[in-house]
Amino acid sequence: MTQTRPVFFVSDGTGITAETLGHSLLAQFPDTRFRPHRMPFVDSPDKARDCAMKIRDAAVESGQRPIVFNTLVDPDAVAGLREADALFLDLFEKFIEPLENELGQRSTHAAGRFHGIAESQDYKRRIEAINFTLAHDDGVSHADLAEADVILVGVSRSGKTPTSLYLAMQFGIKAANYPLIPEDFERNKLPVELTRYRGKLFGLTIGPDRLSQIRQERRPNSRYASIENCLHEIEAAQRMMKREGIKWLDSTAKSIEEISTIILQEVRLDPPSY
Amino acid sequence: MTQTRPVFFVSDGTGITAETLGHSLLAQFPDTRFRPHRMPFVDSPDKARDCAMKIRDAAVESGQRPIVFNTLVDPDAVAGLREADALFLDLFEKFIEPLENELGQRSTHAAGRFHGIAESQDYKRRIEAINFTLAHDDGVSHADLAEADVILVGVSRSGKTPTSLYLAMQFGIKAANYPLIPEDFERNKLPVELTRYRGKLFGLTIGPDRLSQIRQERRPNSRYASIENCLHEIEAAQRMMKREGIKWLDSTAKSIEEISTIILQEVRLDPPSY
C-alpha cells in the first residue's frame, strides 16, 4: 500500500519560492506520494504555532511524519513552527548566513525590514512585459514591435502563445508572437511587418503528429488539422526560417520552461543587474 | 563606489528553481548590486568546467568574488564547477540527503534517472489551465464556465487578466475572468451568466487613484479614466459584491503573486497530491 506523505510549504510571504524548490526536490522521489499544503503569510510566532498544530494534525491523520519546507527566518517563528514533529528543511536559513559573511552585511530579514514585491523595479518590468505580450499575441498588433525583446514565429498551435506569456511573466521579457500562415507560404515570403525585425525573430517548430493532435482538439476532422496539411505547413515554415536565417527549436517534447530558457540563451538575454 | 557582484545560476535543467530561490535570497541584501548570469543545461562535467571558466572570467573582470547558486547533484559535475573560486551555495545537495534518509529511498538524480517536465501530469494540467484561461479572458466566452476553478470579477483594469494568467501558469488553476461594467451597475445586477456560478466568484477591487492612473495610460483624458468615473465604478462594484456575498480583495499595493496566493487561500484550493 502506498502511503501519502503530508508536505507543508511555510513562508512569511507567498510561499511560492518554497513551493518551487520543494516541488523540484520531491520530484526526485517518484515512488512516494505527497499531499502538499500551502501555508503562506505566516508572519508571527502565533501563526507559526497554528501552523505547527496543522502539521501535527496531518501527522496523526496520515500516520506519516510530515515534511516541512520553510523560508521563515525570524527565530521566534521558527521555534513556534518546530513545536511539531516533522522533517524541517529550512530553505533560507542555510544560505542567509554564508551570504551575510560573504557580503559583510546583515540581511534585511534579520534587520526586520521588508519591502513588498509590488514596489520593485523588477516587478514593474514584468507587468509591463505581460501587457506588451497580451497586446502582441498572434500578430494582432504591429504597433511598437520595435520594443519587443523577441518575436516568436511559427505555424498555428506550435506553442507561441504560452511561451510568450511565460517569457513575460517569469522573466519580464517583452515577447510578441506572429503566426506563419498558408498565405505566407504561397507568397513564399516572411510577413512584411516582420522583415524589419529579422534580428528579433525566433522560430518554433513542432512534430506533425503532435500538431495534428493539438489541432484536432480545436477543429476535429478539419483540413486545418489533417496530418497532410500539418506536414505541409511545417515543412514550408522550416524552409522559410532556414532561408531567412531565423534560429528555431522543436517544441514537441519540451515544456514552456525549457523552450523559454533555450530562447533566452539563443538571443542572449541575461537578466538585468539588480 | 558600489561594486557589482557577479552571480551565477547553474543547473542541469532550466535553472529556474535556482534563479527563483537565489533571487529571493539576494533581495535580502538591497545595498549590494548584483549582475546575474544564467547557466542552464549544465549536464556534464565538461560543461561544468566551461562554466567554472566563465565564473573565473567574471571574477577577474569585476574584481569581486562571484556567488554561485547551483542545483547540480552529480559529484563530477559539482567538482568541475568548483574549480572556480566563488561562494558556492548548493541548493539541492543540502536537502537531498535528509530527504533520502527520511523517505528511505535514493533520489532519481542520484540514480541517474531523469524525466522531462513536459511529460508530467502536473505540466499537462498547467497547459490546459492556460488554454482555458486564455479562452475565458474578459468574459469572451461563457462556454464551460462550469469547469472553472475560480471566476474573477471586477471593474476594467483591476488586475483580473494578469492574475488569471498567473493562477493558470504557476498553479494549474482554471481561472476565468469577467468584467463588471457600467451596464451591470445600472441594472444593479450581476451579469446573468455568472449567477449560476456564485460560489466560484472572487472579486478584485482597486484604489480609485491607481485605477485612474492605469486607465489614463490606455485612454488619456477619457471619461473612462476620470477619477470621478473610477470612483463611481469602484463603489458600485463593491456594493454589488457585498450584496451578492462575493469575497474580494484590494489589488492596489499587491503583486500578482500575493493576489493569487490570497485567492487560493480564500477558495481553499490546495495543490493536488503528486
Please write out the topology.
The structure is a homodimer of 274-residue chains.
Chain A: E1 4-10, H1 16-26, E2 33-39, H2 45-62, E3 67-70, H3 75-81, E4 87-90, H4 93-103, H5 121-135, E5 150-154, H6 160-171, E6 175-179, H7 182-187, H8 192-195, E7 201-205, H9 208-218, H10 227-244, E8 248-250, H11 256-266
Parallel strand pairs in A: 1-2, 1-3, 3-4, 5-6, 5-7, 7-8
Helix pairs in contact in A: 2-3, 5-6, 6-11, 9-10
Question: Would you give an account of this structure?
Answer:
The structure is a homodimer of 274-residue chains. Chain A has 274 residues and is an alpha/beta fold. Chain A folds into two domains: 4-114, Rossmann fold, CATH 3.40.50; 119-266, Rossmann fold, CATH 3.40.50. Chain A is 45% helix and 15% strand. Chain A has helices at residues 16-26, 45-62, 75-81, 93-103, 121-135, 160-171, 182-187, 192-195, 208-218, 227-244, 256-266; strands spanning 4-10, 33-39, 67-70, 87-90, 150-154, 175-179, 201-205, 248-250. In chain A, helix 6 (160-171) packs across helix 11 (256-266) and helix 9 (208-218) packs across helix 10 (227-244). The first copy, chain A, is elongated. The model of chain A has no long low-confidence stretch (mean pLDDT 91). Chains A and B meet through helix 1, strand 2, helix 4, helix 5 and helix 6 of A and helix 1, strand 2, helix 4, helix 5 and helix 6 of B.
